[in-house]
């Protein structure tokens, strides 16, 4: 082999060596990031229950405003749930969960990571009755390496526990019976399978379901999470899916075309509210603040809230607009109404957790 041929061989081997080294370096960094994210979320999950906020500090950059803001957010969500618990006469005693790192993208000095989290929170009543709920979230984090260690530079996610603890409604029902199941409200009869509707809401609660269970949405429907939110689409599926859901017949203005997506009333909150009322599929039995729907009235001696049954739905109105829908799926051991929803994912979460005293709640009886 002549000199030119040898040079070609050596150059080829050099390129292979560089490719291997680069791949090794990339793989090593990805493993570092994965390890950091697992530790970060484990500490955050634990701090929700034990309130040891100082354990969060090593994962953030105290000199950067964005990083400090991300850390304070995690502290505030823990403060919120514990103050909510105090107002409702319960105590959060355990938190657990897991994450999946979906993507790691290197961006020079920074790294961007997409993560999904399944979180379980358990509260206890004074007589030791327990309830465990699920919350699922999707996170986009930007990480920065400083002094050889990764830190959170900034983070974005839709947090169902992002609420001002000073705005928690403090009304406490005097009679516990008002949060127990009440008699059905009679209205226009519609074919509605409540049991199937609730099973659907539980099966497709997404990341809020416990680890090891089904944690995906129904794949035959479009996920509208990044198109304004998926809560109304999910509620419509619960009510109208013909195979697994409640089976309410679709109509021209409220339907899902499986090759095109949902109609306006199927996917938009205010439009679904108006459709339910006009069609007779839903009866709006009450609209008001926490205290207004949870206290006894002449019309509802045990409160309007007491009239809700699994399969009914609750709308959440902020500043005159319906912002969210959830599906009533159960009651805890003391009769407190529990709901499921999407964006963010909730599984048997107390109906008012994550909302404040300015929220108007719309209680809908479905199909009766």
Give the helix/strand layout.
Elements: H1 3-50, H2 65-88, E1 91-107, E2 110-124, E3 130-146, E4 149-157, H3 194-203, H4 231-240, E5 256-257, E6 261-262, H5 264-267, H6 269-279, E7 282-288, H7 290-294, E8 313-318, E9 321-331, E10 337-341, E11 345-350, E12 360-366
Antiparallel strand pairs: 1-2, 2-3, 3-4, 3-11, 5-6, 7-12, 8-9, 8-12, 9-10, 10-11
Helix pairs in contact: 1-2, 3-4
How far apart the termini lie comes to 89 Å
CA gyration radius, whole angstroms: 25 Å
**Quaternary form:** single chain
Biggest β-sheet strands, sense, barrel: 10 strands, antiparallel
Give a count of the beta strands, DSSP E runs of length 2 or more.
12
Write down the secondary-structure element order.
Answer: HHEEEEHHEEHHEHEEEEE
Estimate percent helicity: 25-40%
Mean pLDDT over the residues: 89
Low-confidence stretches: 9-25, 174-188
Describe the structure.
This protein is α+β, with helices and mostly antiparallel strands. Residues 9-25 and 174-188 have low confidence and may be disordered. It has helices spanning 3-50, 65-88, 194-203, 231-240, 264-267, 269-279, 290-294, and strands at residues 91-107, 110-124, 130-146, 149-157, 256-257, 261-262, 282-288, 313-318, 321-331, 337-341, 345-350, 360-366. The protein has 7 helices and 12 strands.
